[in-house]
Request: fold
Amino acid sequence: GSYEKEVLHEKKQQWLQLFLHLADVSNPVKPWSMCEPWANRVLEEFFHEGDEQKSRGIPVGHLNDRDIVNKPSSQHAFITFLVQPLLVGTVNLFPSLAHFYLELAINLEQWFKVWAAEAKHTAEELAERE
Reply:
């Protein structure tokens, strides 16, 4: 039909770029057993870069400083501000990908649980994050 011709085929390069980007940030839509270790590996890579920056006396990127980055909070922000909007837009165009919403929601809840367990938080802070 015309949708297939005008949108899918003629914009093929854009869709490939979209799916490549989605694949690049897809960790939060994978099962928790994969999501958490992968996120920890990525953060460790960032922290290693920050350690190198510190050792050279150059400014440390905000996400690269292991002394200030809270892992669960960083993942919450990554999901909320990058992955979720990208996924919502993609699912609007390709509804068959809606099943990824469930894993995303589960992982967001898991990161909240990790965050809540790591430190003492006030009831107000916990309620704000839920």
Q: What stands out?
A: Residues 58 and 104 are 36 Å apart (CA to CA). The two ends are 44 Å apart (CA to CA). The longest helix spans residues 32-55.
